[in-house]
Amino acid sequence: MSGALVWSDAVLAAQLFAVDPAGTGGVLVRSRAGPVRDHWLAMMRVSLLPTTAIHHLPLHIADGRLLGGLDLSATLRAGRPVAERGLLAQSDGGVVQVAMAERLASATTVHLTSAMDAGEVAIERDGVSLRLSARFGVVAFDEGLEDEFAPASLRDRLAFHIDLNDLPVGETEVFQIEPERIAAASERLATPVVSDTQIAAICNAAAALGIASLRATLLTVHVARVSAALENNATVTDDDVASAARLVLAPRALIFPQAQEPEKEEQTPEPPPPQEPPPEGDDTGDENQQPDIDRTLDEIILAAVQSALPAGVLAALREESRDRSRSRSSGKAGAHQQSKKRGRPVGVQRGDLRSGARLNVIETLRAAAPWQPLRRREAGGHGAQARVLIRHEDFRLARFKQRTETTTIFVVDASGSAALHRLAEAKGAVELLLADCYVRRDQVALIAFRGTGAELLLPPTRSLARAKRSLAGLPGGGGTPLAAGLDAAAMLADSIRRKGQTPTVILLTDGRANIARDGSAGRPRAEQDATASARQLRAANIAGVLVDTSPRPQPLAAQFAAEMGAHYLPLPHADAATLSKAVLATTQGR
Question: What fold, for 406-588?
Fold first, then answer.
């Protein structure tokens, strides 16, 4: 699909969403930060939703701020329970904008999707029982890598999925958008009617594309009505249905519809036996006949969907549709980070309770005690009944420190020289290290580089069996693109760190780089690129270990380790067990 068509669909999706934000659910924009995404968002804010309030949903928002609850500061001042509205209730009639949706916490996702389904927020906490209206649309930005996606439950509730990652800036032409047209379409949204024939065609198309979710079908029907309202049509036309199917069903497609097989032989059908004509006025003979428009509408919908499917999208969608259960247990060797809820206590600090932190009552009273005489004089007769006058600036929050979850990235040299020398020992050592990571509940990832590039064989996982299968199928041979392996490790480590985890890179190589970044052969250029990649790892402050797997220690490998800021392990005569013990001693001692 051309870039102009992608941008045209993105603009159309924005217009349809602006007509009915809550009814369409929202828009999932898979795009990293850049001018294309900024242009689309500016069009949404300025042209389509100029008067609609847009509320930003922080990534690690606390339940109290999201749902609402007891306003402790106002309660202490008033002497009676005072409730506060959460962000979801404040967004009623507006739009919730979610950045980095691929990192959204599971608890936040549950609260968000529950409010979208019910159209309200139920507050049953801190002695407060309320039900507040919360009808809103969602604009979620998915900035993940190839194997990172927004939660499936959120994606299922958003009608429009657009991908702007590969769209050049030159393709984002300016469309003439009339805000008055959007407002008028919102007013006549209840007028267009979808026929039973069109609903049946949408259901048939969803089944042919392998879409099992009923929400996709319902959203397609509703988007067809919104499209008719936008075009000022009294009834939903076939073009409205085709546009809705292209925008809603195409991004969710899991299989291509099977084409009808041609007949092997052309046989002349026998003439049917003569039948008496039905009595005049009797239409029972046409009862089971299906009109041709059903077949034609099905073909229109499937053709519209296929035109919107770019090459290779189905394989990505199959990976995207898999369930991804993420465990939140902490590792044992990660870096220390400040926490508000769990870990080892390390003191107190001033702060706001809405951030989800724990109140340290003793320190709060201690901070308020010196100010009691002054506050009583200021309050006069109003504060005579209160024993202790506490204000917002007295709040002291408990601070905790805990270790982050750790992810060990194994970068294995599978080139011809490594395969000739130590690839078998390297595989055995990595398997032993994987077993130790499994015991410590750490995640592991596996990157192999050979030939002209690097490949992520195993995304971060705790599955030891899956890691062993990926390692057992690792082939050997070809050139040594060391720069490509280091670049892949740096990119994966950056995504891991963005999730709040601690990455560690273990590089097993002989250091004999002979393939440059661009895939060209030549040892000087390859070594120069590898050195630059190693410096990027050191600049990112990523802990690492370089294991020299050559029969004789090479000065070049030690130089790469120094450029990486990694510990260098020359092990010319070590077997798999010795190699594993040495790496473990190094990583645990860092």
Answer: Rossmann fold (3.40.50)
Nearest CA among 368, 474, 465, 383 for reference residue 423? 474
- CA dist., res. 137 & res. 587, Å (int): 47
pTM, whole model, 2 decimals? 0.57
Helix, coil or strand: residue 68 = strand
Q: What is the CA radius of gyration of the chain?
A: 31
| Same fold across 3-187 and 406-588 | yes
Helical segments of 101-147, H only: 106-118
Distance CA 101, CA 182 (A): 27
The C-alpha atoms of residue 65 and residue 366 are separated, in whole angstroms, by 26
User: Among 1.10.8.80, 3.30.420.40, 2.102.10.10, 3.40.140.10, what is the CATH number of 189-255+294-322?
Assistant: 1.10.8.80
What is the CA 460 to chain-centroid distance, rounded? 15
Is the distance from CB of 470 to CB of 457 less than 8 angstroms? yes
For residue 318, is pLDDT > 50?
A: no
Cα(322)–Cα(483) distance, integer angstroms? 32
For 513, counting Cβ atoms within 10 Å of its Cβ (0-12 exposed, 13-18 middle, 19+ buried), the class is buried
DSSP 249: I
pLDDT at 480: 83
Which residue ranges make up each domain of the chain?
Answer: 3-187, 189-255+294-322, 336-403, 406-588
Beta bridge partners of 447: 411, 456
* pLDDT value at 324 more than 60: no
CB distance 96 to 141 below 8 Å: no
Share of the chain above pLDDT 70, in %: 72
Cα–Cα distance, 428 to 576 (Å, whole number): 5
Please name the residues in contact with 13: beta carbons below 8 A apart, sequence gap of 6 or more.
27, 160, 162, 247
Q: What does the DSSP 8-state code read for residue 208?
A: H
Which helix (H) or strand (E) is 132 found in, with range?
A: strand 128-133
Q: How far is CA 500 from CA 33, 184, 409, 438, in A?
A: 20, 46, 16, 20
The DSSP string of 451-505 is TTEEEEEEEEE--HHHHHHHHHT----S---HHHHHHHHHHHHHHHHHTT-EEEE
Domain 3-187 has CATH 3.90.220.20: no
Query: What SS3 state is found at 89?
Result: helix
Identify the helix (H) or strand (E) that includes residue 14. helix 3-19
| Contact between 455 and 484 (Cβ < 8 Å) | no
Q: How many other β-carbons are positioned within 10 Å of the β-carbon of residue 569?
A: 21
Give me 525's structure tokens.
Answer: 């250029």
Rounded to 5 degrees, φ, ψ at 447 are: -125, 130
